[in-house]
Amino acid sequence: MVACFWYATIDVNSVHLPPLKVSFDFENQEWIQKEADKVADRAEHMFYEVHNSLSKITDKLIAAGAPHSITNTPELRHQIAELEGMLQKEKMEFQDSLQKALKGVKKRGTCYRHSRN
After folding, report:
1. Positive or negative CA dihedral for 97, 98, 99, 102?
2. Which residues are CB-neighbours of 33 under 8 A, at least 6 positions away?
3. Contact 28/34 with Cβ under 8 angstroms?
């Protein structure tokens, strides 16, 4: 078996480099706000559903339990209250993160390209 390779030269006629400084202006990007609104609506719906589920579980446990049963212990009520507190904390953290992300997008940015000399 014989292999033959033919090497061809490559001619580079021109090179186009980006400018050293590129500015980004995010003022007219309404689609980002629309997407953020969709995310916020979905998150609000999710937090609402979780809160309703916790309320239903609490109601079922209280309705099903006898006066001296394990379902009416202060420990169980404390755990449910703790879960509701965790839910509120997560909701506030999410809203803060979303607001910070939107503030970061609205800022005017500048990007510098490193030149090779």
Report:
1. positive
2. 102
3. no
- Which pair of structure tokens corresponds to residue 113? 């390209």
What is the pLDDT, as a whole number, of residue 101?
Answer: 83
Helix (H) or strand (E) holding 36: helix 30-64
Q: pLDDT tens-digit profile of 67-111?
A: 555 555 678 778 888 999 999 999 999 999 988 888 776 555 545
Q: What is the pLDDT of residue 76?
A: 79
Let me know how long the chain is: 117
The helix (H) or strand (E) run that includes residue 104 is: helix 74-106
> How many helices (DSSP H) and strands (DSSP E) are in the chain?
2, 2
